[in-house]
Amino acid sequence: xxxxxxxxxxxxxxxxxxxxxxxxxxxxxGSPQRKWLRSQDVQDLLCISAGIxxxxxx
Length: 58
Description:
By secondary structure, the protein is mainly alpha-helical. It is built from three helices and no strands.
C-alpha cells in the first residue's frame, strides 16, 4: 500500500476550504437557535413534580 504525504500547504488549503464551507452553510441556514426550557416546562412535558426533577437519585 503506497503512503500518502500530506504537506503543510495541503493542510492550509484544506483549512481554507473548510472555513469557506462553514461560512456558506451559516449564510444559507443561519446560526442555530437555542431554546431553553424553564423548570416548569420540563415538569409539564414529563408529567413530574419539582421534587423528582431536582432529585439527584433519578
